[in-house]
Write a structure and sequence with these properties.
The chain is an all-alpha fold. Helix content is about 80%, strand content about 0%.
Length: about 130
């Protein structure tokens, strides 16, 4: 069971992941900052084509406008949530990469310690 996980961990280019983690985090933060900034004015929507559509009443137009505003508000809320989630994931990724780097360094230190102990044991047995 542990073999596929070890194989997967060996296949991942950790150097590239570690190298690009700060860029991903910065990009996510910029995206969140842009989302928090006031929206820039957009072009007005295209008017209804009254030649092909039947003449809608004022009440119908008002209802369509209310529905459109509700949809826009819902989409803006979803986009804000997705932006926050992306930022959180980028921060978690950066912490994960830092933890993996720390474990990699510790593993190297332990390998040197084990090698030194093995050499010490060999020297003791040869005396």
């Amino acid at each position: 069971m542990a073999l596929p996980w070890l194989l997967a961990l060996k296949v991942i280019p950790w150097g590239d992941v570690i190298e690009h983690a700060p860029k991903v985090l910065n990009a996510a933060r910029k995206l969140m900052d842009r989302q928090k900034a006031p929206a820039s004015p957009t072009a007005p929507p295209r008017p209804l084509d009254l030649a092909t559509d039947a003449q809608p009443s004022l009440g119908e137009l008002k209802n369509r406008l209310i529905e459109a505003r509700q949809l826009i508000d819902q989409q803006a809320e979803v986009q804000l949530q997705m932006t926050q989630t992306l930022g959180e994931l980028a921060e978690q990724n950066a912490r994960l990469v830092a933890a993996v780097e720390l474990l990699r360094v510790r593993t190297r230190v332990f390998m040197f310690v084990i090698a030194a102990l093995a050499i010490g044991v060999i020297v003791l047995f040869t005396r």
